[in-house]
Design a protein that fits this description.
This protein has 18 helices and no strands. The structure holds tryptophan (TRP).
């Protein structure tokens, strides 16, 4: 299967190509924008003290996330296979080391773990669509909405049902192929989500605690920063950009040769970061106006947003619209979490796309019950970082993604010859390429390594 370096320009994807550059931008945007921006960013920022965490997170996005995203797309387009096979081909081609395939494989596994809990939380948003529609938030205060949420997540049958439904929809969409559905969903959903967030922002301003929210989000208090907080900021940057496990690499494999990887990466990272910040600007004023705890954890948006929808005019309408959009945003992300595994199973084991998606989906679905039960029957079963959910989240997001990203950027920056990477990014080797190479070779790998070592106490 491996071809010589000279013929890589001719290598073509086995799953077809994106119909246009815009289709690719939309797909990567759809992957990046999801629960990470609206559910995870506010609660992780809240748990880690706000301002200083946000600043470090932004630094991680620009200095580490962006170069790694570019590296992933360039590797994907050069290999034109699923992440496992792409790393095997490129490892062999560039260095005679097909064992680089292991990095792709660990990405596939990270995708399994992440999607298993992602689907559970996406199920929460589906359930909350119904709650919004039935007027369950109207006239409720923070305490009763908190109780409502507590009762919901404590019911493994309800949560398991929605998790099952979400996984089923994901499997169907992935079975349909590379392009079908994703493009249309993203085209409608991302702008709609932004408009709804702006409406919520108006409500957040009206709570009277907007200044407190802004201060929490942007005034850095470095005394709150620990090694674990920096690791969380790094993990969040990887998670929100969908990098470190081969998702954007898998998408890069379908990218036409003439599309600019740099422009795409900047656009996606910019949109993704703006949506996360916007979400924080909505959530924290509501938190402070109602005496809630910013460090509440994964339930944060499910206890704050219903307050807004219960009080603002036409709140039930906007509430339904918001949770539907969030569900779509989660779907377009979930698809990308499954794509590397499915493409790998199709290419390596010769299954049809449908049966590959069904099998992969079944495993992830089963694994998901560890998270479903982490909020009910297994809520008191704690080890390591906490519940099963806490451990799966920490292992995949804070460890596996940064490690995966580290290896990918080392490969693209050090192992791959300059001709090959310049060929994909900028054959003229202009200033942007040189800056990328500097970040990909030195800044990103060293920073990731230091953060990981620091979090595990090597500098104490
Ligand atoms: N970025 C998505 C979000 O913010 C989640 C996601 C999709 C993801 N694909 C990924 C995270 C790949 C890590 C790796 O919701």
């Amino acid at each position: 299967m491996a071809q010589s370096a000279a013929s890589t320009g001719q290598r073509i994807s086995l799953h077809g190509n994106w119909s246009s550059r815009l289709a690719f931008v939309l797909a990567v945007t759809g992957s990046a924008v999801g629960l990470g921006n609206i559910w995870k960013f506010p609660y992780v920022a809240g748990q880690n003290g706000g301002g200083a965490f946000v600043l470090i997170y932004l630094g991680c996005v620009v200095l580490i996330g962006l170069p790694i995203m570019m590296a992933e797309i360039l590797l994907g387009r050069r290999g034109r296979r699923n992440p496992v096979e792409t790393m095997r081909i490129l490892g062999d081609e560039e260095a005679g080391q097909p064992s680089w395939a292991v990095v792709g494989l660990s990405g596939v596994i990270a995708g399994f773990i992440i999607l298993s809990f992602y689907s559970t939380i996406a199920g929460w948003t589906m359930a909350y669509t119904i709650k919004a529609a039935s007027g369950s938030f109207v006239g409720q205060d923070a305490a009763s909405l908190g109780a409502q949420f507590g009762a919901f997540i404590a019911d493994p049958f309800a949560v398991g049902f929605w998790h099952t439904l979400f996984m089923a929809i994901t499997v169907v969409l992935v079975s349909l192929g590379v392009e079908e559905g994703i493009e249309r969903a993203v085209r409608f959903m991302v702008p709609a989500l932004v408009i709804l967030l702006l409406i919520l922002l108006a409500y957040a301003v009206s709570t009277g605690a907007f200044a407190a929210g802004v201060e929490f989000l942007f005034k850095p208090d470095f005394s709150k920063i620990t090694g674990t907080a920096v690791l969380a900021a790094l993990g969040q940057a990887f998670f929100t950009l969908s990098i470190g496990m081969g998702a954007v690499m898998a998408y890069g494999a379908y990218l036409p040769q003439d599309a600019s990887i740099t422009t795409t990466s900047f656009a996606v990272a910019g949109a993704d970061t703006s949506i996360a910040i916007l979400s924080g600007l909505v959530i924290f004023p509501i938190v402070f106006a109602n005496g809630l705890d910013p460090a509440e954890g994964p339930g944060l948006i499910f206890q704050t947003l219903p307050l807004a929808f219960g009080q603002m005019p036409a709140g039930s309408f906007f509430g339904v619209l918001f949770f539907v959009c969030l569900g779509f945003a989660a779907l377009t992300s979930a698809i990308s979490l499954m794509e590397p595994a499915v493409a790998w199973v199709v290419e390596s084991f010769g299954l049809s796309r449908q049966s590959a998606a069904a099998r992969v989906g079944l495993i992830i679905w089963a694994l998901g019950f560890l998270t479903v039960l982490s909020f009910s029957h297994l809520a008191e079963f704690k080890f390591g970082r906490g519940t099963f959910f806490d451990n799966l989240d920490f292992l995949s997001v804070n460890i596996m993604l940064p490690l995966g990203g580290l290896l990918l950027t080392v490969f693209a920056g050090w192992v791959m010859c300059q001709n090959s990477s310049a060929d994909e990014l900028d054959p003229g080797v202009g200033p942007v390429y040189r800056l990328w190479r500097l970040l990909a070779r030195f800044v990103a790998p060293v920073a990731v390594l230091l953060v990981l070592l620091n979090a595990f106490g090597l500098f104490d």
